[in-house]
Amino acid sequence: MGIFSRRQSATVEPPSAAGPHTPFPAADAAGVALDPALGALTGQWTIDRPHSRIGFSVRHAMVTTVRGAFADYDSALYFDGAQPSKSRAELVIRVASVDTGVEQRDAHLIGTDFFDADRYPEMAFRSTSTVHEGAESFRMAGDLTIRGVTRPVELQLDYLGSVLDPFGYERAGFDGTTTIDRTEWGLVYNQRLEAGGAMVSEKVRLQFDISAIRMPLS
């Protein structure tokens, strides 16, 4: 959609130029009652990076879990509390910002064995439908692009609540998760273990701990 800035230090990023009236594919309604209070959340939002985490976890050597996160990304969110099927999200991540706490491992991840950041500096998620499943639970489908490969995924999203913070920002919290097979996006590097199994699991869990800030009306 061409709506992202390149600023890396700002907490609040510009609202989507598309606005809430941009045509968007609607999902079939789940047929469950909505909390009327959700209607007050309808509008444009953006992820507050210092208070959010776009992360992942993957099993390593069959016996432990490695966790990491991406620090540099742009976001544009539109939440419709009355008609969730009109809600949408777009996230563009600079893969070179990956941080697992080990520099050597991070360098390996952005190299040609994995993300190949020189050729594919960004990965992206663009939603295609949203369904309210009940209470504070939503399911968002979308297209995930990594290394130039785009495939559909589904996120499980849980609404955590909203609050007006001491600085005057209206915040809403969401937790999102999904599990993907990294080989479907061309991330096929691995080493086999002598006792069987792989050094790095093909299954990767993506985790979105989101503190979103409402954008002012333009």
What does this structure look like?
The chain is mainly beta. Helices cover 4% and strands 47% of the residues. It has one helix and eleven strands, in the order ββββββαβββββ. It has one helix at residues 103-110, and strands at residues 43-47, 53-60, 64-70, 73-79, 88-94, 98-99, 122-134, 137-146, 149-164, 170-181, 200-214. Strands 1-4-5-7-8-9-10-11 form an eight-stranded antiparallel beta barrel. A hairpin with a 2-residue loop joins strand 7 and strand 8. The model is unreliable at 1-28 (pLDDT under 50). This is YceI family protein. Pfam families: YceI. Residues 44-213 form the Lipid/polyisoprenoid-binding YceI-like domain.
What is the first-to-last residue Cα distance?
Answer: 18 Å
What can be said about the biggest beta sheet?
8 strands, antiparallel, barrel
Order of helices and strands: EEEEEEHEEEEE
Shape: elongated
Strand order across the biggest sheet? 1-4-5-7-8-9-10-11
**What value does the Rg take, in angstroms?**
18 Å
Structural class: mainly beta
As a percent range, the share of strand residues is over 45%
Spans with pLDDT under 50 lasting ≥5 residues? Answer: 1-28
What is the count of DSSP helices, taking H or I runs of 4+ residues? 1
Protein name: YceI family protein
InterPro entries: Lipid/polyisoprenoid-bd_YceI, TTHA0802/YceI-like_sf
Family: Belongs to the UPF0312 family.
Organism: Streptomyces caniferus
